[in-house]
Write a structure and sequence with these properties.
Largest sheet: 6 strands, mixed
Strand content: 15-25%
Structural class: alpha/beta
Number of helices: 16
Radius of gyration: 27 Å
Helix content: 40-55%
Strand order of the largest sheet: 4-5-3-6-7-8
Number of strands: 12
Length: about 425
């Protein structure tokens, strides 16, 4: 790892620590070919770490990489203070940020699955009072008891989350006729701000990592009688614990079921390509890399016009995914994303000419409500309506025996969804 990259990772770790409520008093780094089996870092470096911790009166050391249970135990014994790794820190943040019952269950499940192989470390201080051969100390007895209790609780949480997943699936079926888009992206890319700006909804927006964990779905008006359901999902981050991804799978199903994934990127982030790659890895794990996607470069208010032009060129040079540039705090730029959503909706519509009786006001109202009426022509006996309709509405018309003169697929207009807009 390059020194600049290592520094960025440590800066992000410091932000995570701040989010968790810790005060960072110093950093230590080492370039090693392979982790030390006992301490992860070398023996000389762990001595330096102990001196630094004592000098700064630190009571916690956080490693950026995941530690094996034995490594964490040996480090705590040597340093004499609490040791955690990045995964445990992220789990701790999620635990404090979870608001809904579902999110709390998801975090608890991830914590317990992380904790289970590390129980021995927690009870190591009790194991020292064991007697001779054939005698078992209370630490070992309690360890086995805790393992059974945790195993039971894990099974219980999985069962409850499966029920939540089924309930979510039922809710999604109820929204099957609506166009759905899901916001995904690196944590703090501005997804919640974007959803709030587009929908006008009252949502928590905070400049901190993982400010929100609970998915939120809001209606976004696109004009011309069209609207979309936009869902904000949990943010991603480097080295996101696998157990956490697995636990939040039911929440992330919103992205799987969406008609379009909006990958939100912080345009002001120098390492946007690295963060883009992190999100790609998670999407790949969720089998969503091949889903329809649009890159949404947010926070353009934090870069100069020249910097934005350079960014656009870099994006055009490496990305084949359509992209749009905007700021959640500049309302006029939001129309760029609304146009993208509108174009996607129209791509799924069919141009039809429907012949109605002049007295059939109910069907005419349904055409306005469910689709986009382009024009109407009336003579003495009939009303001919040219409209763009979804397949579901078209099927209902055909089932009622209403005459349809022509049907044609709209297709996606490339001038409406530019490669970089």
């Amino acid at each position: 790892m390059h020194e600049a990259t290592a520094r960025e990772h440590l800066e992000e770790l410091a932000r995570l620590a701040d989010t968790a409520g810790a005060d960072v008093v110093g950093t230590v780094q080492q370039r090693i070919r392979s982790p030390h089996p006992r301490f992860y870092v070398g023996k000389g470096k762990v001595r330096e770490l102990r001196s630094t911790a004592r000098a700064s009166k630190a009571d916690l050391v956080i490693f950026d990489d995941e530690l094996k249970p034995d490594q964490a135990r040996h480090l705590e014994d040597f340093l004499g203070i609490r040791v955690m790794d990045r995964a445990e820190l992220i789990l701790d943040i999620f635990a404090t940020r979870a608001r809904t019952r579902e999110a709390r269950m998801q975090v608890e499940l991830a914590q317990l699955e992380y904790l289970l192989p590390r129980l021995k470390r927690m009870w190591s201080h009790l194991s020292r009072i064991r007697g001779g051969i054939g005698l078992r100390g209370p630490g070992e007895t309690q360890l086995e008891t805790d393992r059974r209790l945790i195993g039971t609780r894990i099974a219980e949480l999985k069962h409850k989350l499966e029920a939540v997943a089924r309930s979510r699936a039922t809710q999604r079926k109820g929204r099957a006729n609506s166009f759905r888009a899901a916001l995904v992206g690196y944590t703090n890319a501005g997804k919640s701000s974007l959803l709030k700006a587009l929908s006008g909804a009252d949502l928590l927006v905070e400049d901190r990592l993982f400010a929100t964990l609970d998915s939120a779905t809001r209606v976004v008006s696109l004009g011309e009688a069209h609207q979309a359901l936009l869902t904000d999902t949990v943010g991603f981050i480097r080295k996101l614990p696998h157990d956490l991804i697995a636990s939040f799978r039911s929440t992330l199903e919103e992205a799987r079921e969406a008609d379009l994934i909006l990958h939100v990127v912080d345009a002001s982030e120098p390492d946007w390509e690295g963060r883009l790659a992190v999100v790609h890895e998670v999407l790949e794990e969720l089998e969503l890399l091949d889903a329809p996607r649009v890159l949404v470069f947010n926070k353009t208010d934090l870069v100069t016009h020249a910097e934005e032009e350079v960014l656009r060129e870099r994006v055009r040079g490496r990305e084949h995914t359509p992209s749009v540039f905007l700021s959640a705090f500049r309302p006029k730029t939001l129309d760029r994303l609304r146009n993208v959503l509108l174009a996607r909706i129209r791509a799924a519509l069919h141009s039809v000419q429907v012949v109605l009786k002049v007295t059939d006001g109910g069907t005419l109202a349904a055409l306005y409500r469910e689709g986009e009426v382009v024009k109407t022509m009336r003579d003495d006996s009939a009303l001919t309506v040219t409209a763009r309709l979804p397949a579901s509405a078209l099927g209902r018309l055909q089932a009622r025996g209403i005459e349809i003169l022509e049907v044609a697929a709209q297709g996606v207009s490339e001038d409406v969804i530019p490669s970089s807009g």
